[in-house]
Amino acid sequence: MNLYTKWSRREYTLKQRLLALVPAFFLFVLILPYLFVIIIPRLDASLHFPDIHFGLINTLLGAVFLVIGVIYGFWSIYAQLTRASGTPLPVMPTQKLLINGPFKQCRNPMTFGTVVAYLGVGILVGSLSSILIVLILGSLLLIYIIRVEEKELEIRFGQDYVAYKKTTPLFIPRVCPKK
User: Which of 27, 105, 114, 156 is buried deepest, with most CB atoms within 10 A?
Assistant: First the structure.
């Protein structure tokens, strides 16, 4: 039996799901931002990358990216916790196929939100290294999603997922309804 399928058959209480998210919270909200703000920008000088500080432009563009990313990230986590009895963690996957809320706009709103938020952080601090690392890690995550996660979702949710996949973009949200 597929490991994801095995994990998806177990149901967890809301308390268990919330507790499981505590380590992820520390990783994604504290540790990774620290790396993108403090540690990784030090690479810019070592790699002789150009300075990408443009004053107010960095602040405005970075803040917009950060806000959009945080909204999509937390909106999708909230939906997974409250409407699908799951979490973003593979070991506690959703019990229901989510096709509304942020999942109506794209199939991976949490990934979109995470990548956009970290890009915002990289822009805010003006670090080309941070931006490049976010883009590389985001690309690797999308490859994983396409090769592993989408196949697992097709196994678990069958034709419902296949139909959803045909009408909903993978990564970039479609905020205007398709006509």
Answer: 114
Cα gap 6→79, rounded to integer Å: 22
Tens digits of residue pLDDT in 128-179: 999 999 999 999 999 999 999 999 999 999 999 999 999 999 999 998 866 6
* Whether residue 1 has pLDDT greater than 50: no
CA dihedral 119, 123, 124, 128 (to 10 degrees): 110
Give the CA count within 13 Å in the CB-facing half-sphere of 18.
5
Query: What 3-state class would DSSP assign to 119?
Result: helix
pLDDT digits (tens, 9 = 90+) for 80-96: 999 998 888 888 889 89
The conformation of residue 136, written as its DSSP 8-state character, comes to: H
